[in-house]
Amino acid sequence: MTRSPASRPLSRRALLGGAAALGAAAATGGLSGCGSPASLSADPSELVLWYWNRAVTPELLAQAAEHIPGSPGRRVRGDLIGAGFDTKLRTSLAGDAYIPNITLINSNCALYFPNESLFLDFSELGAAQYRDLYYPWKLKLGTTPSGRLCFWPLDTGPTGFYYRADLFDKAGLPSAPDKVSAAIRTWDQWIELGRELRANGGPAMVNSAAVVFGQFINASPERYFDEQDRPIFAAEGSAVRRAWDTAVKAVDAGITGNQQTATGQNSAWVTGATAGHIEAVWWAEILGDTAPKTKGLWRIADQPVAPGNSGGSFVAIPRSCKDPEAAFNFTTWLTSPANQAVAFNKIQLFPSSPASFERGGLRADATFFGSQNMLRFFSDAARRVPSTFVSTYESQVEAFAAELANVESGGKAPEQAWEDAVAQVNRVLKKRGVI
Amino acid sequence: MTLSLTTQPAGRTAGTGAVARGPRRPLRSFWPQYLAVAPFYLLFLIFGLFPIGFSIYLSFTDWDGIGKIKFVGLAQYQYLISDPRFWNAVGNTLVIWLLATVPMLFLALVLAFLLHQNIRFKSAYRVAYFLPNVTSMVAMAIVFGSVFSDSFGLVNSALTALGVNEVPWLSSNWGIKITIAVMVIWRWTGYNAIIYLAGLQAIPTELYESARVDGAGNWHIFSKLTVPLLRPVILFTVITSTIGGLSLFTEPQVLLGNNGGTDEAGMTIVLYQYNQAFTQFDFGYGSAIAWALFIIALVFAVINWRLVRERSTDSSSQRRLWTATTRKGITR
């Protein structure tokens, strides 16, 4: 071909050259990432915020896009990040390129504790004057073991026992929230109530044993590890062991529904095959979407022993932030009691500041819960959530929930399942160099 | 255009001349061709080869995705060999692959054979059988989750209506495996049937006609003529199904979540790799699992290759198959 007459090969050559140039351009385009700036935006007055859907009130974001209160001439550009938020954030942090100036981090902020140096400490930015505004247990969750406040309280998830009042009525049980709360002060009482519900032809209390196990631990001041990341779950009488025994007891009493998949769980709430759930305040919204026809039939009672915290996100400022002061101003403005009230009214983010309730003006649609004041319920619960430490290694303990499911749906002997779970978690922790 | 047509032969001979002298200075004489394929290879180098090489390196390290990369030598592989969860995943993958592939290819073959007959609405059937292959697997996993739901599913409702006990499809070891296999069958049967159909259409009609003249029924034609003649095509589908089966991920992930359901019965190798790398942020171990999967796939590739090589020897005698073996079978 190289020696063919001039006219045609020339044009082909041009074509080939063009294709090669395109390829080279694409290749250099890909490579240019290597020498890229750490920030996502070249505009010095524009700070980039990463968030996920329904995590920041659109109205507040629009205001910050004009200017950040307290930092004239600075604006926030919100980038909506879809699924795999952590993977994307970690990728940009690992590559030290295209890092947002401000980012939200979900309730799993402990995952970032080993790399806390990648984030700024809010205490050093002037957090002292705002600290008293927030629930102490929430501040504690955002503080690393070395005492740096790297994760700022955004919203919280105080828990309660959601239940179907009509199904309780039908089974001849007390159905008013205060009566139910009084009847289930301890987990044994809660299991006993579930047993009565079953005995009178009622459905299961919750979908699965994992609900009991998880929320028992969420309401406990002690979890899987101590603050030096030493595992404490295998010790005699540990919180994890007590949560396990309580969950197994609930299985034995036949009051868990063995709904192990999400579709099964949704069906159970829609059909009334499960009469309740123990979950945080944000679950009300999900329930309303999942089972709209059960509107007005649900109530909320106190979780046995004490309420816990489930979920709730944080704001963090990566080390590479171009203007930490403006980022801090944005964060404290976004999470001020007044704006948290706005966030609750608009997108049902539950405040991390008790002052939001004291100001008044919070509105909650109570029709789903038969005019029960869920706002007052959860603001009371939020005050009683115990302070606790979440270790970065809690992502390694999934074996407990998995083995509990084996007990519930596979009929595995509980003691064997416990030993298997401990053995597996220990194996993983040994591999990761924790023990 | 006409001008270039007349010059074409000359160009071609010049080209073949270049091929003959090629080995001496290949890069210089073939630069347009190299240039033409360069965009793909450059992109492959950056987005394909580099990650592959990096994952080899990662499999010898301990890395959480952000912090320091710590070199640990063969420790990840040592852990892998003694990791019961990994071997459980290997076992699950192979069992689900067998449960899915055998009925799927048989069904596809039967479907293709039936579609090859003179029936009405042929195209409509072809589209209908191929449709599952282009639907979103994520959406379908949710539908299957409802259909096979333990206490609310259609399947269990049907079973109770028939007076049979409910089966815990999504919370028992075999139930989970069968449900995933059914999803795979549902999705890929039509795809394979279309491939078989193409193979069938390449078989000369005289063979069928002579078989009919000899009085062969549908079953005999199918088992004694169609299947032996389609052997190369069948081997091709076995290979593609093996690759698909070994990399099974979406179905169990959407259906059961990142932990593979009760007793990890739906935990496949790729799901375990995803679980370790992207939910536990253990990229070193995730890479080691990926390379273990590569070795397993290599073993299967060798097995497939040997099967193909053995069969290819009798491809020349395939035409004689019918007269030699089958006629005997029918007249008996």
UniProtKB/TrEMBL annotation, chain A:
Signal in keyword set: yes
Span of the signal peptide: 1-26
Magnesium among keywords: no
InterPro entries: Bact_solute-bd_prot1 (IPR050490), SBP (IPR006059), TAT_signal (IPR006311)
UniProt keywords, alphabetically: Signal
Name this protein carries in UniProt: Cellobiose transport system substrate-binding protein
From TrEMBL, chain B:
Assigned keywords, A-Z: Cell membrane, Membrane, Transmembrane, Transmembrane helix, Transport
Biased composition (Low complexity): 9-21
Stretches for region Disordered: 1-21
Pfam families referenced in this protein's UniProt entry, alphabetically: BPD_transp_1 (PF00528)
Membrane topology per record: Multi-pass membrane protein
CDD domains: TM_PBP2
Transmembrane residue ranges: 34-58, 94-115, 127-148, 229-249, 288-308
Record-annotated ABC transmembrane type-1 domain positions: 90-304
Main location: membrane
SUPFAM superfamilies assigned: MetI-like
Record InterPro entries: ABC_transporter_permease, MetI-like, MetI-like_sf
Location within or outside the cell: Cell membrane
Recorded superkingdom: Bacteria
UniProt entry tagged with the keyword Cytoplasm: no
Family statement: Belongs to the binding-protein-dependent transport system permease family.
Entry protein name: Cellobiose transport system permease protein
Protein's organism: Kribbella aluminosa
Organism classification: Bacteria, Bacillati, Actinomycetota, Actinomycetes, Propionibacteriales
